[in-house]
Amino acid sequence: MLQGRLHHLGKSWILELSPIPQTDSGLRQQVERERILAAIAQNIRESLDLQTILAAAVTEVQALLQADRVLVYRVLDNGTGSAIAEATAPGWIKVLNLLFPEEVFPEEARLNYLQGRIYTLTDRDREDVIPCLAEFLVQIQVRAKLVIPIIQQDELWGLLIAHQCSQPRQWLEWEINLLQQIATQMAIAIQQSELYQQLQEELSERKRIENALRQSEALFRSLSESSPIGIFRMDTTGQWIYTNPRCQMIGGFSFEAALQDGWKRFIHNDDRDEFWQQWEIAAAENQEFSAEVRFVRRDGIIRFCRIQTAPVFSAQDELTGHVGTVEDITESRAIAQMKNEFISIVSHELRTPLTAIRGSLGLLANGVYDQKPQRGKRMLQIASTQTDRLVRLVNDILDLGRLESGRVTLAKQPCSVLTLMLQSVDAMRVEAEQNGITLSFLPLNIDVWADPDSIIQTLTNLISNAIKFSKPSSTVWITAELIEDKHHHQQRDSLASPRDRSPQESSPTSQPHNKALRAPEVPPLTGSTAFPPQLKPPYVLFQVKDQGRGIPADKLESIFGQFQQVDASDSRKKGGTGLGLAICRSIIQQHGGRIWADSVLGEGSTFYFTLLLPPLP
What we know:
Blueprint: E1 2-9, E2 12-19, H1 24-46, H2 50-65, E3 69-75, E4 81-88, E5 99-100, H3 107-114, E6 119-121, H4 131-139, E7 144-152, E8 155-164, H5 173-226, E9 230-234, E10 240-243, H6 245-251, H7 255-258, H8 269-284, E11 289-296, E12 302-313, E13 319-328, H9 330-365, H10 373-405, E14 413-416, H11 417-427, H12 429-434, E15 438-442, E16 447-450, H13 452-468, E17 475-483, H14 486-491, H15 503-506, E18 517-518, E19 539-545, H16 570-574, H17 580-590, E20 595-600, E21 604-612
Parallel strand pairs: 15-17, 15-18
Antiparallel strand pairs: 1-2, 3-4, 3-8, 4-5, 6-7, 7-8, 9-10, 9-13, 11-12, 12-13, 14-16, 17-19, 19-21, 20-21
């Protein structure tokens, strides 16, 4: 810069121009500029917080330039932008976070700034400014401004802007240079901050993935530990490296015992070699594998199992091992076998009476017995008997199906034991008389909690069986007894006790039309089991005892199954369907009771079942 001095020479004045010497004030400004640049650079090196760096920079620049406002403007992709850092002198409005209109930042200006060009405005009122920008400058009180672009990786990141609001201002070269240097430092800070932010995001994502993996592993282990299906893992050679508890329980081995090749020892000798050979063939071709084998547990129990395996590959498509499941199919195999047997038995049970009916009716239809009326009548009786047998079979199958599927709703209510027994005995009176059997019952004057129709069906089934397998002139006893502990006996002093039973009072022997009924003492069976295990009183114990041929000990449990007979010829000779006891068991179980049998060969059998008392009020 130049300074002038006037010299008087005669009648004229001469202006002498000379460089203005740099004063102490100028030196101080230069030192201050260098200090600001050094401070910003130091902030960039020491801080990774971009907002802190920008805020400190605009504050320093505003103080040095004595500008009314200095801000950092962030350019957005949609053509607008806002101030993200600001330092404003007192008395002037703040524009921090104010969204600048798109029209004040046209595309031409964006391209100029992207090329690194600066923009200076000395006086808003005297220079040519587009109307929308002029109006916006008036709104934010700007008279003069200096704009420096901030370029980041060949993109226009933002602008460093100085505003003079009080008056016009001629921006000096050193001011422009200073802001350009600061904009360069800001670009460095932005890049550094973005790299740091990217690193933080990557670290956060890595932590998130690690947490997700830990949670996934914990979830897998939790699911595996509680899975109802056995799960195991194998390495690439087929050695086991993990088994879950269910797998260990099915195979009957411990975690340690199954590791490596240990699991093979628990496969049945007849299955081991073939299973392993088939697995190796599938594994060599990276194929899924499925086979059924028998596991022999340490306690000697054999479990039929289905083993399935599948190869596991890494992200690089490399084989890392195999995962497999073990499913215990012992019960399902037994059910399938029972189903096949059921179909076979039902087919036989249907075919036998149908054959008899068809044969009898065929003979009649062909006139074979037209001249033999008695033989023809016999054929009709055979057809009628076999028809009844078919009806009973179908009804029993339907009853059992409804009971076991839960489609039958039991209407439980307080029921008199005396009434249940009287109705059941009366229903079987004719059949007993026809077979020469005496029915003797000792009723109990007490209520049970039951569905009356279902219990009568149970009692008549048991009495009918006892009649069928008893010899003529023998007796079938039907009794009921209250079983209770001392505590319940005291609570139920208003109800009848076993002492209230009276043969003279309850026995129908005094009624002439029931000549087959009487009530003597019931002779016990040798080794009789009167009480079921794991059943707590109070309850009523029902007994139906006969003097028949008895039941072998190994049949006492199986006779409650479907189509089970002590002797296969019984269904032909006695006309039973083999479903009666299965129906009885289902009814009693749905009442919360127990049913079982005891027998001595040659002496007879006793069938027991229990029913609960009505709930106390």
